[in-house]
Amino acid sequence: MVLAELGGKLRDTLRKLSVAGGVVDAALLNEILSDIGRALIEADVNVKLVMKLRENVKSRVGKAVEGADPDSTASNNVNRLVQRAVVDELTSMLTPEDGAGPYVMRRGKPNVVLFVGLQGAGKTTSIAKYANYYQRRGWKTAMVCADTFRAGAFDQLKQNATKLRVPFYGSYTEADPVAIAEDGVAQFADEGYEVIIVDTSGRHRQESALFEEMQEISAAIRPDCTVFVMDATQGQAVYDQAMAFHDAVDVGSVIVTKLDGHAKGGGALSAVAATKSPIIFLGSGEHFDDFDPFNAQSFVSKLLGYGDVRGLMEEMKSVQDPKTQEELMEKMAKGQFTLRDMYNQFQNMMKVGGMGKFMGMIPGVPEYLIPKSGDDESTMRLKKFMYMMDSMTNAELDGKVDMHKKNDPTVESRIRRIARGSGTHPKEVQMLLQCHKQFEGVVSKMGKSGLMGKGGAERQKQIAAQMRKNPNLMQQQLKNIDPNLLKAMGGSGSMMQMMQSMMGGGGGGRGAPGGMPDMGQMAQMMQQMGMGGGGGMPGGMPPGGMPDMGQMAQ
């Protein structure tokens, strides 16, 4: 994860609130703020910003901690108040003050985006990621290379565009970047492209010639948005760079790159926010999918281990076909969930960025359980399951053949055929079928309980009342999952343990590090995934399954 070291220190610090059991005095508050300040300074955040954060938190929670405000000290609200104040101030630190919001793309019209930045910041790679992001979401996208200074710039852009199957424009003979930019933008605009991205030359330092060239290109193509690509390894030093570019070409937004392994990333993010330029994306790897939309609140939430339900919901929504999803929900209301349905959900998960990225957005999943790469064991296991389903017939995928019959020679023959076709072992196919049976059981309970049909809301309220009386009921039900299945699904990085975390992986209170997530949001996310708003794990939650998660959290 981005800034994992900083996130770990902040989580450890806030965990002291849970250990304190709600008893937070002035000494503990000072200790927590000192630890947070030290962690931020080590991440190269400006000392003035750190001092401001400490002062603001103290002013917000000081009276509650001292007991001067009786209403604020009721129950365990003090530690939640401190947590909320820290989260809000960290979010504020990464949010431009009085700055305009980022440019919003318009459908059906050419949106010209000019990329600028120093050489070596990852500008050309970021352009490819940017193009990939919008193309995957149905935008007609094109790239223009107006970088005539760096040898190989056009070749790099052309190579990236070819991999992404994105049209590109450039020239090996034309030396005037303004002419290239103007011609490329005009051509793609005439052809009806919606997102036209223009690459420009970078320099090793802030030379006057660089700014003159940028200004000429900007005047010629009149971009709708100018994006400054910034290297996070520069830390606080990027403030001067961002201001210089902002003054020269009216930077509308910022992309921060190389955040995947550098301690100065916190300083870079806070410095950019100080320029009043909104950060729109974070680059954190070499792959085209290592590109995440930036939202200060979501970023802080992930940093502190609360997950990013909002981001995950948006990602799942962006990769799903609304009509297909509606059909799936109708089937699930009847208690139906085929192997093809499971295949489609696995496919959606892969589109989001694989198991690692998916788990990183889920509240309550500890950092050490989240796979560190796109080729992690759990992601590979999902791919293997999909290979097996690719070897199945339509009848098998659509549930017209009962693949769960035991001691049936016909089913055993089918399993052997699927294993041969997918290059796997019959036992692995049996594990896939067992996994499907678990999910099918969940959906069946949901359908029979009426949680997804008419009158489902009233049934959810009844179950919510049971959950409030016995908060450990969910954990008790999760113990009914076959431990051998959990192990075979990939251990701690598995699909099933991911489900456990989604449903509230123990620990602190609502929103606390390692504790229950915002269950109202969780229910929405599960519905986006095609898992509905309820449904207990197999094994007997009485008698309808999982409660309305928003009600449960209250």
TrEMBL record:
GO CC terms in record: cytosol; endoplasmic reticulum; signal recognition particle, endoplasmic reticulum targeting
GO MF: 7S RNA binding; endoplasmic reticulum signal peptide binding; GTP binding; GTPase activity
SMART domains named in the record: AAA, SRP54, SRP54_N
InterPro entries the UniProt entry points to: AAA+_ATPase, P-loop_NTPase, Signal_recog_part_SRP54_M_sf, Signal_recog_particl_SRP54_hlx, Signal_recog_particle_SRP54_M, SRP/SRP_N, SRP54, SRP54_euk
Cross-referenced Pfam families: SRP54, SRP54_N, SRP_SPB
Keyword check for GTP-binding: yes
BP-aspect Gene Ontology terms: SRP-dependent cotranslational protein targeting to membrane, translocation
SRP54-type proteins GTP-binding domain residues: 278-291
Keyword tags: Cytoplasm, Endoplasmic reticulum, GTP-binding, Hydrolase, Nucleotide-binding, Ribonucleoprotein, RNA-binding, Signal recognition particle
UniProt note: domains: The M domain binds the 7SL RNA in presence of SRP19 and binds the signal sequence of presecretory proteins. The NG domain, also named G domain, is a special guanosine triphosphatase (GTPase) domain, which binds GTP and forms a guanosine 5'-triphosphate (GTP)-dependent complex with a homologous NG domain in the SRP receptor subunit SRPRA. The two NG domains undergo cooperative rearrangements upon their assembly, which culminate in the reciprocal activation of the GTPase activity of one another. SRP receptor compaction upon binding with cargo-loaded SRP and GTPase rearrangement drive SRP-mediated cotranslational protein translocation into the ER.
Name recorded for this polypeptide: Signal recognition particle 54 kDa protein
